[in-house]
Write a structure and sequence with these properties.
CATH class of the largest domain: Alpha Beta
Number of domains: 2
Structural class: alpha+beta
CATH superfamily of the largest domain: Fumarylacetoacetase-like, C-terminal domain
CATH architecture of the largest domain: Alpha-Beta Complex
Distance between the termini: 39 Å
Largest sheet: 11 strands, mixed
Shape: globular
Number of strands: 18
Helix content: 10-25%
Strand content: 25-35%
Radius of gyration: 19 Å
Length: about 300
């Protein structure tokens, strides 16, 4: 199932995609609870709140979807004109990876790393599908970076590779937009590159959260990034140096992961600049297309 955060008419909630349309999970869940005599959990209006409350799970979504179909409520619960939001508009953390595709390391003139290069992007950089990425004045080159991202569903410390899949709520797309000239200056002086990755709007995310029933193992997914319809990046998660389970194991050895944390797994080769007026389309197989225009800073 593909779960979404959406808004419509001043109302924001959780839904799922059915034949390209949004079905209101939050309302469906409430009706399901009333029908089965269960208490309604207030967290059901937000994916992040559901994760933090331990409510989020593929089994719950499957039960509610089956209830809707059994009672023929799909038409009533469709949301015409729904605007998709980032699945998690303000994640606790965005933990990203540098140089996790060998070809990308090569194009930047660096050797593939022997250990994962973790860094953090600001959560305030997150925007959703169709929202504009703002090209800041005076920063020079700004690049796109399509990435598969895993969202932590169950937190923990010292998580084994074998147990890692049980800690993943689902997968989404993150475009790790980067102020490249600023990053290169920081790298040249051995400074961290947090700021070059964290401008407001520099973390488009979406369009959905694909649950494990859609993607049980993200080991063979095509990635594509198009600018104005032209393919700039094209690869497959087979080429990841450090796989998702490995990243979770290595990261949780030192850091306690929390529900809602987003782990962006790195970008393939083909990075290139974008300019105001461009439109970026980041696509990952079995998740969808994340589309964002680029605008100049007003």
């Amino acid at each position: 199932m593909k779960v979404v955060s959406f808004s419509a008419g001043g109302y924001s909630a959780v839904g799922w995609l059915e034949n390209g349309e949004v079905v209101d999970f939050t309302r469906a869940y409430t009706l399901h609870c009333i029908a089965t005599g269960r208490p309604v959990h207030a967290a059901a209006h937000s994916i992040l709140h559901m994760l933090q409350a331990g409510l989020f799970g593929a089994e719950l979504f499957a039960d509610v979807r089956a209830f809707v179909k059994r009672h023929r409520l799909t038409k009533e619960l469709r949301v015409p004109g729904a605007r998709l939001l980032a699945p998690i508009p303000r994640p606790p953390r965005i933990i990203a990876l540098g140089l996790n595709y060998a070809a990308h390391a090569e194009e930047t003139g660096k050797k593939p790393p022997k250990d994962p290069i973790f860094f953090v992007k600001a959560s305030t950089a997150v925007i959703g599908p169709e929202e504009p990425v703002v090209h800041p004045k005076g920063v020079g080159r700004v690049d796109h970076e399509v990435e598969l991202a895993a969202v932590i569903g169950r937190g923990g410390r010292r998580i084994s590779r074998r147990a890692a899949p049980k800690h993943i709520a689902g997968y989404t797309i993150l475009n790790d937009v980067t102020a490249r000239d600023m990053q290169n200056r920081d790298l040249a002086t051995s400074r961290p590159w947090f700021l070059s990755k964290s401008f407001d709007t520099f973390a488009p995310m979406g369009p959905c959260l694909a649950l494990p029933d859609e993607i049980s193992e993200p080991a063979d997914l095509d990635l594509v990034l198009r600018v104005n319809g032209e393919v700039r990046q094209k690869s497959n998660t087979r080429d990841l140096i450090f796989k998702v389970a490995d990243l979770i194991q290595r990261l949780s050895r030192h850091v306690t992961l929390e529900p809602g944390d987003v782990i962006a797994t790195g970008t393939p080769s083909g990075i290139s600049p974008v300019r105001p007026g461009d439109v970026m389309e980041a696509e990952v197989e079995r998740i969808g297309v994340l589309r964002n225009p680029v605008v100049g800073q007003s």
